[in-house]
Specification:
Low-confidence stretches: none
CATH architecture of the largest domain: 3-Layer(aba) Sandwich
Structural class: alpha/beta
Strand content: 25-35%
Number of strands: 13
Mean pLDDT: 97
CATH superfamily of the largest domain: Thiolase/Chalcone synthase
Radius of gyration: 18 Å
């Protein structure tokens, strides 16, 4: 066992005040509440206000995570923001967050792995902490995904929302079975064309819109998420029945239900927030976790299984024993 342990000790979240229901969308999109719910499980989502940016969402979530941990910004050595919707092409959104929250000594950069961004960022942060790049990290998933939507495409524009979630990782010099038990990452660029944005600085000189082949994405999601979760469990020498909570990427209720079935977990062990948040991409797992910690379901010492897949294709899973030993 390693002589060090990387703990996940605190969470924070932020959702924009602007709530948009399915009925609201049906006023200007050819859709209906029944159509959206039946296919996705979504009933509403949050959208950023005019002038509200991804960095603003991330900073709110970061400040809540710090408050919940009774920490100050100066205690943070590393900030990683997982986002597909940065405020600017450069500099990174993380540097703006660093400035906004006052974490002046922290290393700061972004990770872009779309919906799998939070899992990727946790893995990178763990490696950096183990490599001596600090003692505490803020890992934030934050998205203003509404900025990428084509309002003429009802198959995609109803799926997404905006928000941010943050966790604090801390390295300790004592070996234990707490904290990050395993993480596994994958990518396969051969499938990039089934989920992508049709724009970018070097290709079209504009931001572009989300494009998706829904049936293909669903097929790959169920297959690849089940396989990567098996890998994460094997790496930690665990079985599905050891899991206290599945905290999946909140993309579609059918994908979440399929994962529950494949893992043979009871429904009450699965955190579902897709109905209220929609798909918030890199923010969805930390938002779901913050919701479950906030309402008392996730307790100190619970074993969390987290998984996500996004455009690229990129996907990953992580097992984390949440909190800190007494």
């Amino acid at each position: 066992m390693s002589k060090q342990t990387v703990l996940m000790t605190s969470v924070g979240a932020y959702l924009p005040a602007n709530v948009v229901t399915n009925e609201d969308l049906s006023a200007y999109v050819d859709t209906s509440d029944e159509w959206i719910q039946r296919r996705t499980g979504i009933t509403q989502r949050h959208f950023v206000a005019d002038g509200e940016t991804t960095a603003d969402l991330a900073s709110h979530a970061a400040n809540q995570a710090l408050a919940n941990a009774a920490m100050q910004p100066k205690d943070i050595d590393l900030i990683i923001v997982a986002t597909t919707t940065p405020d600017n092409t450069f500099p990174s959104t993380a540097t703006k967050v660093q400035h906004q929250i006052g974490a002046t000594g922290a290393i700061a950069f972004d990770v872009q792995a779309v919906c799998a961004g939070f899992i990727y960022a946790v893995d990178v942060a763990e490696a950096m902490l183990r490599g001596g790049r600090g003692r505490r990290a803020l890992v934030i998933g934050a998205e203003s995904f509404s900025k990428l939507l084509d309002w003429q495409d009802r198959t995609t524009c109803v799926l997404f929302g905006d928000g941010a979630g943050a966790v604090i990782l801390e390295i300790t010099d004592e070996a234990s079975d707490w904290g990050i038990r395993s993480s596994v990452l994958h990518a396969d660029g051969a499938h990039r064309d089934i989920l992508y944005v049709d724009g970018g600085p070097s290709s079209t000189n504009d931001v572009g819109h989300v494009r998706m082949e829904g049936k293909e994405v669903f097929r790959h999601a169920v297959e690849k998420l089940a396989a990567v979760m098996d890998e994460a469990l094997a790496a930690a020498d665990m079985q599905p029945q050891d899991i206290d909570w599945l905290v999946p990427h909140q993309a579609n209720i059918r994908i979440i239900d399929a994962m529950q079935k494949k893992m043979q977990l009871p429904s009450e062990k699965v955190i579902r927030t897709v109905a209220a948040h929609a798909n918030t991409s890199a923010a969805s797992i930390p938002l779901a976790l913050a919701t479950a910690v906030g309402d008392g379901r996730v307790q100190n010492g619970d074993l969390l299984a987290m998984e996500a897949i996004g455009g690229g294709l990129v996907w990953g899973a992580a097992l984390v024993k949440f909190g800190r030993p007494s």
